Amino acid sequence: MEQKHPLPPFTLKTAKQKIQLAEDAWNSQDPEKVSKAYTTDSEWRNRDTFISGREEIVLFLQKKWEKELNYKLKKEYWAHTDNRIAVRFEYEYQTKEGNWFRAYGNENWEFDENGLMAKRYASINDLAINEEDRKFR
Hints:
six-stranded mixed β-sheet
């Protein structure tokens, strides 16, 4: 049976561990690695895009990181319950044209009993920034 520790029910400590693991995985920009944290039938809403399952997650992330260059993400604990975690995040990226953006958002996560994320709902807004205004290097 596939498991991804820490497992629910989450404590403050294990919720923060789960968040750090997610941040590290996303900053690797490795779609296959990131997808392993999700159930095989995981449901996502990412902005206006609806995604179902690991295969779609991998394809989505491949396209994302082809467009979002020099990607750097920071996640922050917001709240948790037994098998759910809410995070606030921001990330920066550069387009192929050289323009910089900072994206802000919130995510709601729901995990199965094996610690795999079954649902991910992300609300995200982008802000154009100047290169000298970057926070993450």
